[in-house]
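Hey L., structure's done. Input below.
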Amino acid sequence: MTMLADNWGVSESQFWLRGETPGEPVQFAPEQGMWNVYGYPETIEILSDPATFSSDTGRVVPESIAPDKDETAEGNLIRLDPPEHNKLRKLVSHAFTPKVVADLEPRIAALTRELLDAADGTRIDLVADLAYPLPVIVIAELLGVPGSDRNLFKQWVDKMIEASKDFSLTEQSEAQKAKLAVSREQRKLLTDYLGEHAADRRRHPREDLLTKLVESEVDGERLTANQIVNFAALLLVAGHITTTMLLGNTVLCLDAHPGQLARVRADRSTVPGAIEESLRFLSPFATLARVTNRDVELGGVAVPADQMLLLWIAAANRDPRQFADPHTFDPCRDPNPQVGFGRGVHFCLGAPLARLEGRIALNILLDRYPALRTDPERPPEFIDSPNMTGVSKLPLLLA
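Output:
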């Protein structure tokens, strides 16, 4: 996969994709005003101790950089610490129980076939034709918003991702302020959209997650409008981006390793293992952020209180202290304690759904297209962000 990193436009900052290991597992980056954490045991320590390592990252971001940080934090699960986090998470956990997720299998399979039927007969772009629309339709239907609006969602999210690249706590340049203003504008379009649907649910309740949020109470109080739209926005955005990248990355990994692809084709019981290894080998969300609540020693380095930590979980998933032959793609790796979905109280709520969507879609692709392969004349294109590892375009030949 070194060829992938060197020749297919993967961000140069993603050194782990080139078989490189950082000199130290914890390093301060003065140009960003943050600490980079690359090691697996250090990452596990942080994710397992929310009392020391807070998810309330906005508190160390200057007002001049993020003037709306308090407003966007309301109801945002990834920015909350226990006990508030646990209370809000409980509101929608019923929608992601093993039974509820398993019951979605027929709908996911039907959608996969419909989307592939609508695609070209000899070639497809996996992202545009399947990996993006499939999960966004599923999560939109769960929430109760039209899946047909997915092009709007994509437009808003793509611009937010582009605007958040190379974020720095220390840079006060007009360029960064302008980029962040674009991100705020796009986010407002999304939350205004969800706010309109939430207002409709107050008047006309339905059997969907948005109605559940509108009607829910925490400690005897209804959620505020901000809490509802921020919660819904997180579910909508995170609920599809992970699966989009996961499916594309898994197909790409298997294509680059023909022997492993043949094994998976022959023995479908190895499909879940291929998905787990893809999460480790090409971790979709490369980073998570935390803030220290107190002075702490991490990886042998003294880190003061109120410092931003950028956890490079994609690098941690290649840590040779945890994974033997970490730069080898091995779908049969066992055990595989990858942290692509996080760990601890913030473990990805939608992980079971993402795994199910990936398994169903991959099996249908392998059943339907015995000669499925990448197009040598049209190489994959990757999301242009060091914080994400996933294809934005993946042309495939079907015959």
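The two ends are 24 Å apart (CA to CA). The first helix runs from residue 2 to 7.

-- N.
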